[in-house]
Amino acid sequence: MMYGPDFPSMWRQLAGYVDRVLCGAKVSDLPVERPAKFTLVVSLKTARVLGLTLPQSLVLRADEVIQ
Predict the structure, then answer these.
(1) Three-class SS of residue 8?
(2) Reading across the β-sheet that carries 2-5, which strands appear in turn?
(3) pLDDT-based confidence at 56, cuts 50/70/90?
(4) Is the pLDDT of residue 36 over 90?
(5) What is the pLDDT of residues 16-31, one digit of tens each?
(6) Are 59 and 44 in contact (CB under 8 A)?
């Protein structure tokens, strides 16, 4: 199982940040930004090998499920 920032979304966010710097904004004046989107990936195959039973509600919430 992996829960973390969505990297393609972070790169898009970074592009806007770079645009502001290239347009003349001071880096010290820009706010620190956190990732806007997080993803949850669940590996049912690994869970089976480890003998774990994952709740169906967790599997349904996952952005990606590895069979």
Answers:
(1) helix
(2) 2-5, 38-43, 64-66
(3) very high
(4) no
(5) 999 999 999 999 999 9
(6) yes
Q: How far apart are CA 45 and CA 39, in angstroms?
A: 19
Residue 61 has pLDDT above 90, yes or no: yes
Dihedral sign for Cα 56, 44, 66, 11, please.
Answer: positive
Angle at 20 between CA 19 and CA 21, to 5 degrees: 90
3-class DSSP state for residue 15? helix
Residue 42's Cβ-count burial label (10 Å; 0-12, 13-18, 19+) is: buried
